[in-house]
Amino acid sequence: xxxxxxxxxxxxxxxxxxxxxxxxxxxxxxxxxxxxxxxxxxxxxxxxxxxxxxxxxxxxxxxxxxxxxxxxxxxxxxxxxxxxxxxxxxxxxxxxxxxxxxxxxxxxxxxxxxxxxxxxxxxxxxxxxxxxxxxxxxxxxxxxxxxxxxxxxxxxxxxxxxxxxxxxxxxxxxxxxxxxxxxxxxxxxxxxxxxxxxxxxxxxxxxxxxxxxxxxxxxxxxxxxxxxxxxxxx
Length: 234
Known about the structure:
Blueprint lengths: L4 H26 L13 H26 L3 H5 L6 H28 L6 H7 L2 H5 L3 H32 L4 H15 L6 H18 L3 H21 L1
Helix pairs in contact: 1-2, 1-7, 2-7, 4-9, 4-10, 7-8, 7-10, 8-9, 9-10
């Protein structure tokens, strides 16, 4: 197996590069170079592009790297799923919700911070405020609920976890490191503690089962709940 930690950093660089390119295009578009729109808000189509395209390109690289340099997703990244993972994921989801609520309350009491997700801010600053629920926002919510969790788990509890395992790191240390990186790459400082405890819950699924099926299930439950709550507020 020739893939490793370097491929994770390459994948991260690809994510960053694609995000920057899309951001630049968006800025140019707002100035009327690519369209006649002068709106200061982000359209539904751009929201979908900004949220979905970077991780899609990133995970595409991961899949190609593992297939060409190793034995494939199942063998190298524990890409396996069993029906019981749905139940395990539900238990981990409930644990993650309790932990995130406790952390949120602690942040509000100690620091007066009420963290909100960047995606929520983007939607509420955009078309969602003026027109309520739109078709584009519904599509985005479905993709965030069902597709993003799969892609993120392949990258973090899959590639990154397995790469650290190859280097001989103990699983307890891997759990902490992957959770820290998972929280950091979201670039949401106020939500870092919440994302960290969610990462711990997700990673615990891999420790207990030896595969990422339960991690994906937990992540889908979390994102689906968040998206349903978001749509309910629009």
